[in-house]
Amino acid sequence: MARQVDRPSWVVGWLHDYVNADGSPRVWRPDNRPSDADTSEAGRKVREGWTFAFRSRHIEAVRDAAWLYRAMGEEHYARWAISQLTFYATHYAQWPLQRRLGLSRLMGQNLDEATVIIQLAQAARAVRPLVSAQEWALWRDSLFVPVADTLRSSVTGLSNISVWQRSALGVVALLLDDTGMWRDAVDGPTGFKALIEQGLTRDGIWYEGSFGYNAYLVRAALPVLQAAAEAGRGAELAAAAQRLRLALTVPLALRFDDNSLPNPGDSTSRIRVPDLPLLAEARTVLPTPWSEAAALRHPGWADVWSPPSANDGTLPPLPAVQSMALPDMSMAVLKGSPPGWQVFAHWGQRTQHHAQREALNLEMYWRGQPVSRDPGTVYYGSPLHNGYFTQPAAHNVPFVNDKGQQGWAPGELLDFDAATSSLSVLQPRYNADAGVDRVTSLSDGRLRDSVKFRVRTGVRPPSSMGLAWHFDCRMTIDDGLAPRPTGTLPPGEGFQHWTDVRAFAANASLTMTLHCPGGALRLRVAAPGPLEVFKARAPSLPAGTFRDAVYLRAPFATSGFESVFAPLVEAAP
User: Fold this and answer.
1) Beta strands across the sheet bearing 369-372
2) Among residues 72, 139, 262, 328, which one has the fewest Cβ atoms lying within 10 Å of its Cβ?
3) Superkingdom of the source (predicted)?
4) Distance CA 255, CA 123 (A)
């Protein structure tokens, strides 16, 4: 309150532009704002990215000050919050109208405007008893109504962004007691209730296909659910809340043994479960068996208004992880007998929003330790986002004519058997040249994976097929192959970011040893014809780290590649 002051001259940009040259996030502090003297485009982006972080934190502090007043009755907190609300109302129209994603002034895009107006509305409700009629009219007419207009005009369809926009509009409507605005926020074909009904699949996962955005969707819904409950209108959103509870709890049954979730889509971090802060935050409107213990471990503002019930903080057991298919999400988990294999398979996408070119990717754990994980992606402003981490070369996927998936498609589930931990899937339009089948199964302590190709009707038969594997273990090639003096990785598809590339020639099979935390594994990959082998170091996360990777290329054959991962049993001494 005393040290940090927002400025009318500060224009907010995009958080994802606040990155170093290598794409890693810059360190942010309230006192390290980049200089206005750098007038270059890159300098402006970084400076406005810093301002995003500042204003986001500042507005959260405004909300917290107002809630301190609500909790404690100390008016100096409220007076400061009131002064900041008046500042934003006074200067809102002076900030440039931005069109990066919808319309915005306070922030750099309408999504971010939605998130901060929620906090400002929460602050305004808390300090309302101390606000004069004249000041309230200024806030209403110069801040909340103009932002509501941008929210309405910026909703473009089904996405997590639209949920944030409708949630924010609902919170503002309840603040202003505007019935028409409330109906606009929650009803109709693009209202909050319709978005939740359409976007949450029968599998209980948000349709954009990312567990990071699945959690983000729940966070988007909480403000309007909580505001409606406080206003006595929670029953109007009861059906949506029922579906959102599934989105909060279904991922728990998809976790790996280290309690991390698989990482399909373009999340910028790996999600771990149970997400205790989110379970605690959702406790009053989306109660779960873990809510009360989560609230004791991660207390928050909701506990001030509604204290958790008596509990010793012990979490109830999480649901058991078993082999299961989620056909609406083109996802499946294969779980072997412990301590053994767990595989997450992802064979398609329901939308291009947050999709990566990763259809038919696999993530694998063995004996509770990672063998091959999807690391996620970097900030979207980094060249490594579009250039590598969203590209086929960053995933365990097939290639046809050195091309991975093109576009996006849901794919098809051909067969799934939980009893035998086997899965058969198809991408009929994997790329312009072919469709691809992938069959994965667990038995006898082994992971077997088969990739087969289908030439598309009317297309000339491809000349080559390929397969990439990435490892969170150190990998060595066992066949004593002689290095090839010629041979290069394909251009593009992300391969340009592989380093320390070594090329080899092999006959119709290749054997590798994976030195993993859970023990050594032998991987044998077979193809109908001779193999070109490219061993390399591939970018991983955190930024600046690498992992072993291999790309195998062979003359095209519909029979494709057969891979077998088996525990390496060392001979007795």
Assistant:
1) 324-326, 331-335, 341-346, 361-366, 369-372
2) 72
3) Bacteria
4) 37
Q: How many C-beta atoms lie closer than 10 Å to residue 88's C-beta?
A: 24
Strands of 546-555's sheet, edge to edge? 398-400, 464-471, 546-555, 531-539, 499-506
Does the CA dihedral 194-200-204-205 come out positive or negative? Answer: negative
Choose among 412, 451, 408: nearest CA to 428.
412
Helix (H) or strand (E) holding 447: strand 446-455
Beta bridge partners of 510: 525
Instruction: Report how far residue 110's alpha carbon sits from residue 35's, in angstroms, rounded to the nearest whole number.
Output: 26
pLDDT tens-place string over residues 440-451: 999 999 999 999
Cα distance between residue 78 and residue 394, in whole Å: 50
Per residue in 549-566, pLDDT (tens digit) is: 999 999 999 999 999 999
C-alpha 336/C-alpha 342 separation (Å) is: 6
* The two three-digit tokens of residue 373, written as one number: 């994980």
Average pLDDT estimate for 503-518: 94
| Amino acid found at 242 | Q
Are residues 128 and 119 in contact, defined by beta-carbon separation less than 8 angstroms? no
Q: What percent of the chain has pLDDT over 90?
A: 89
**CA 317, CA 478: separation in Å to the nearest integer?**
43
Cα 438 vs. chain centroid, distance in angstroms? 25
Residue-wise DSSP of 531-555: EEEEEEEEE-SSTT-EEEEEEEEEE
pTM for the model: 0.92
Per-residue CA distances from 8 to 94, 114, 118, 407, 439 (Å):
8, 19, 20, 43, 58
DSSP state of 10: P
| Alpha-carbon 40 to chain mean position | 31
**Mean of pLDDT over the chain:** 95
Domains of the chain in start order, with CATH, are 281-317 (no CATH), 324-567 (2.70.98.70)
Mean pLDDT of 533-547: 94
Contacts of 39 (CB under 8 A, 6+ apart): none
572 has pLDDT over 70: no
- Please report the pLDDT score of residue 570 as a whole number: 53
pLDDT band of residue 338 (cuts 50, 70, 90) is: confident
Closest CA to 223 of 179, 282, 296, 269: 282
Q: Is residue 427 a contact partner of residue 414, using CB atoms and an 8 Å limit?
A: no
Q: What distance in Å separates the CA atoms of residue 467 and residue 469, rounded to the nearest whole number?
A: 7
Distance CA 294, CA 288 (A): 10
**Cβ burial, residue 459 (10 Å; 0-12/13-18/19+):** exposed
CA 407 to chain centre: 19
Highest averaged pLDDT of the listed ranges 1-5, 146-150, 155-159, 379-383: 146-150
Residues 383 and 19 sit within 8 Å (Cβ to Cβ): no
Q: Which amino acid is at 363?
A: E
> What per-residue confidence (pLDDT) applies to 90?
98
CA angle 547, 209, 410 (to 5 degrees): 100
pLDDT at 573 (0 to 100)? 40
